[in-house]
Design brief:
Elements lengths: L7 E5 L7 H11 L3 E6 L2 H13 L3 E4 L5 H15 L4 E4 L18 H26 L5 E6 L11 H21 L5 E7 L13 H11 L8 H12 L10 E4 L9
Parallel strand pairs: 1-2, 1-4, 2-3, 4-5, 5-6, 6-7
The structure holds nicotinamide-adenine-dinucleotide and ligand 0WE.
Ligand 0WE binds next to loops.
Amino acid sequence: MGLLDGKKALILGVANEKSIAWAIARLFRAEGADLILTYAGEAIEKRVRPLAESLGAAVLPCNVGSDGEIAALMKHVEQRWGRLDILIHSVAFAERDELKGTILSTTRQGFATALDISAYSLIALLKEAQPLMAGRNACAMAMTYFGAEKVFPNYNVMGVAKAALEASVRYLAAGMGSDGVRVNAISAGPIKTLAASGVGEFKQILNTVEDRAPLHRNITQEEVAKAALYLCSDLASGVSGEIHYVDAGYNITGI
Ligand code: NAD
Ligand code: 0WE
């Protein structure tokens, strides 16, 4: 008996075996869910296909910057399952140049891209998924970072995008609540994934957490996945619009 037996879960954001979304996919499968994983671009497809096959999951394309690809994805979901119980959004993107220097070097285009891919995409996806999710205790979940609330060097426009994502989670929770759909986010501590690669001071960020967080260590993808399992299962049936920290307690610290 799994916590997600028979649930249909759509997971966006697996890039490789280090992805947070991959830890979520493995745990959700182990708890009995049927999965569809998505990828954006051929390079990612090559990585995701073998991972998906190892879980018996289907693989579909979806660049979340495209309304057409989102519509096509949801059409596939409808044809395959006729419904959707769980949607996991584990996607973020800003141009590399935006994640250095200060917010003052943000370009109009760079701002638009970061907000579009990292925040608006959740709204775009749920708009299309709503008919498949309504009336069945479905739930959606996104991934965010403390940089939405506090200033971290170089996080820049991604902090603005995560603030928009967190506000979107609250408005979506309100907008979909009458359909019985819950919408939440996990605010994860820093983890060395592809999205963290090339971030100059990442090691220093990890060291600071180890130093100052109540648990004096960093967190793992598996720990995020366990919280995601709680939020997406019946255990969290009364929880919506919430930003849930999985950060070894870092966010509560002052000095
Ligand atoms: P990751 O690189 O494995 O995942 C990011 C995913 O976004 C990739 O699969 C990538 O293909 C996808 N993506 C980028 N642009 C896309 C587009 N246009 N369409 C569709 N997909 C696109 O890294 P991760 O750390 O697992 O990141 C997952 C989520 O967790 C992100 O939202 C990230 O902001 C968030 N997060 C990460 C950390 C961390 O320290 N790693 C901390 C807190 C929150
Ligand atoms: O949300 C993120 C990272 C999101 C991200 C990462 C990249 C790197 C590669 C978005 N776009 C890109 N674009 C690229 O070209 N995190 C929470 C991880 C992260 O990224 C940082 C951090 C942390 C933590 C960037 C600067 C400072 C801290």
